[in-house]
């Protein structure tokens, strides 16, 4: 197979793809946790806000969200802080942020379910021991949340990994974009998309293996039937 | 920033026609995808190792790669082969972005749906199938009258989610020049330089599309609720003696 010297470029693209996925995942996890806490909050306004967030971003196409953050983001920035000049949102930031927002909306539901799966008695036990609410949340609830939430979050990450291909449409030099450039330069259309496909498959397979290990770790000390 | 409500109203007819194409793409590839998914799910649980292996590879590929890669492989990739361009049967289909999108969406959704149906078919209690055997039903009759109806009802919530995901991924049709809802919105943004208004309007239309379907699915799920008592058996139900 002749790559016409595009091999290193494709590998660089893989790196960018992973960077986008990891950035979006990290931000998305924070959004998701905040969203879940807001949904379970006693403050009605917070519950309402989280509800609007998940309803909106679970119902919008990921691609449209990417376009909105990139183009509408630039329009808003230009109008507010631009002072007459065009202000661009860097594609990497716009793309990662857009994917993080969608990831966060789904993660909110995963975290909410996981928090609710923890027996009330555990929280009461913490209260009986005189732990503060903050300590109960971080030392008692969260370690168990990770165990319950990990399968759901793992699935979300696999979806996210594939959605990163969308950022190629706003100019991020990810794997998909590099494959596109190589195709344009060599006119060898099938080969480069096929290579990209195999690379995504490899990333998916690696992620699946890592997730299995993480789940094992999160479940250590749990009795199995 | 000057927000133009007027522009939203003026772009609405065009956006609605885009939404029409979106609905058409989903309906067509939904039906085709379903027809591929069913035999694929059966092949996943077949006794033949070759069938299991083939269907497993198909599902692994289409679930493991981005839809965008699949669309580009079909639209740009296949047209790179001279034998495709010279084929009188293939070329009229594969040179049309419309059909390439339909093919990509159908194959993609069929892989996800096949896994859903496989899971729900394996969740049907063995006793019910054994009951069918005890009654002397043929394998096909067992599938048609026991296994599939039960499995479809069990898989319905997950399958509904898959349809929702398909609507959202259909936005990618715009990447190969199709004027679906997202395609129209992108064209309008390019013309008016008003991304906030246009994308907002398109987003609202997507939300309406998706939540209307969510609502419809909830109604169907309720109607087919297996926990609902069956109507009483009447003598004539037994058929001619």
From TrEMBL, chain A:
The protein's location, in the record's own words, is: Cell inner membrane; Cell membrane
Among the GO molecular function terms of this UniProt record, one is: transmembrane transporter activity
GO CC term (a single one): ATP-binding cassette (ABC) transporter complex
Q: Name one Pfam family in it.
A: BPD_transp_1
Give TM regions: 20-38, 59-83, 89-107, 148-170, 190-214
- Location of the ABC transmembrane type-1 domain: 14-211
| Key words of the record | Cell inner membrane, Cell membrane, Membrane, Transmembrane, Transmembrane helix, Transport
What membrane topology term does the record carry? Multi-pass membrane protein
**Family (UniProt):** Belongs to the binding-protein-dependent transport system permease family. HisMQ subfamily.
The protein here is known as Amino acid ABC transporter membrane protein 1, PAAT family
TrEMBL record, chain B:
Q: Which family does it belong to?
A: Belongs to the binding-protein-dependent transport system permease family. HisMQ subfamily.
Q: Which GO terms describe its molecular function?
A: transmembrane transporter activity
A Gene Ontology BP annotation from the UniProt entry = amino acid transport
Q: Which Pfam families match?
A: BPD_transp_1
Entry protein name: Amino acid ABC transporter membrane protein 2, PAAT family
NCBIfam families for this protein: HEQRo_perm_3TM
One GO cellular component term of this record is: ATP-binding cassette (ABC) transporter complex
SUPFAM superfamilies xrefs: MetI-like
Entry's transmembrane regions: 20-41, 53-76, 96-114, 159-179, 199-220
Membrane topology (UniProt): Multi-pass membrane protein
Instruction: Name the UniProt key words of this record, in alphabetical order.
Output: Cell inner membrane, Cell membrane, Membrane, Transmembrane, Transmembrane helix, Transport
**Which InterPro entries does this entry report, sorted A to Z?**
AA_ABC_transptr_permease_3TM, ArtM/GltK/GlnP/TcyL/YhdX-like, MetI-like, MetI-like_sf
List the PROSITE patterns.
ABC_TM1
Q: Which organism is it from?
A: Insolitispirillum peregrinum
Domain called ABC transmembrane type-1: residue spans: 19-217
The answer to whether the entry has keyword Transmembrane helix is yes
Q: Source organism's superkingdom? A: Bacteria
**Localization in the cell:** Cell inner membrane; Cell membrane
């Amino acid at each position: 197979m002749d790559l016409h010297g595009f091999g290193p470029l494709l590998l660089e693209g893989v790196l960018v793809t992973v960077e986008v996925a990891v950035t979006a995942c990290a931000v998305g996890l924070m959004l998701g946790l905040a969203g879940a806490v807001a949904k379970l909050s006693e403050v009605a306004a917070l519950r309402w806000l989280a509800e609007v967030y998940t309803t909106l971003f679970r119902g919008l196409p990921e691609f449209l969200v990417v376009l909105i953050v990139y183009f509408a983001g630039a329009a808003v920035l230009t109008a507010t802080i631009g002072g007459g000049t065009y202000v661009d949102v860097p594609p990497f930031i716009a793309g990662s942020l857009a994917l993080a927002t969608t990831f966060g909306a789904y993660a909110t539901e995963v975290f909410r379910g996981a928090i609710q799966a923890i027996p009330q008695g555990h929280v009461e036990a913490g209260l009986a021991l005189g732990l503060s609410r903050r300590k109960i949340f971080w030392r008692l609830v969260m370690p168990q949340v990770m165990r319950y939430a990990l399968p759901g979050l793992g699935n979300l990450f696999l979806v996210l990994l594939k959605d990163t291909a969308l950022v190629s449409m706003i100019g991020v030099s990810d794997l998909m974009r590099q494959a596109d450039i190589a195709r344009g330069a060599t006119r060898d259309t099938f080969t480069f998309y096929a290579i990209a496909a195999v690379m995504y498959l490899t990333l998916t397979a690696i992620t699946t293996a890592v997730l299995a290990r993480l789940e094992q770790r999160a479940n250590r000390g749990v009795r199995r039937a | 920033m000057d927000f133009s409500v007027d522009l939203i109203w003026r772009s609405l007819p065009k956006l609605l026609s885009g939404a029409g194409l979106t609905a058409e793409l989903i309906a067509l590839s939904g039906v085709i995808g379903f027809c591929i998914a069913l035999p694929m799910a059966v092949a996943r649980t077949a006794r033949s190792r070759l069938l299991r292996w083939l269907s497993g590879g198909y599902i692994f590929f289409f679930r493991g790669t981005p839809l965008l890669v699949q669309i580009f492989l079909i639209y740009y990739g296949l047209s790179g082969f001279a034998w495709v361009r010279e084929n009188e049967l293939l070329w009229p289909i594969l040179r049309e972005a419309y059909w390439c999108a339909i093919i990509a969406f159908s194959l993609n959704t069929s892989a996800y749906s096949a896994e859903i149906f496989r899971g729900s078919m394996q969740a049907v209690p063995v006793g019910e199938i054994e009951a069918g055997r005890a009654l002397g039903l043929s394998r096909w009759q067992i599938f048609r009258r026991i296994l599939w109806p039960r499995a479809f009802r069990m898989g319905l919530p997950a399958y509904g989610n898959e349809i929702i995901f398909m609507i959202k991924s259909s936005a990618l049709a715009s990447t190969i020049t199709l004027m679906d809802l997202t395609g129209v919105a992108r064209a309008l943004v390019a013309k008016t330089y008003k991304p906030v208004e246009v994308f907002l309007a398109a987003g609202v239309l997507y939300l309406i599309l998706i939540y209307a379907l969510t609502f419809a699915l909830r109604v169907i799920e309720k109607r087919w609720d297996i926990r609902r008592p069956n109507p009483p058996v009447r003598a004539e139900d037994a058929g001619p003696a």
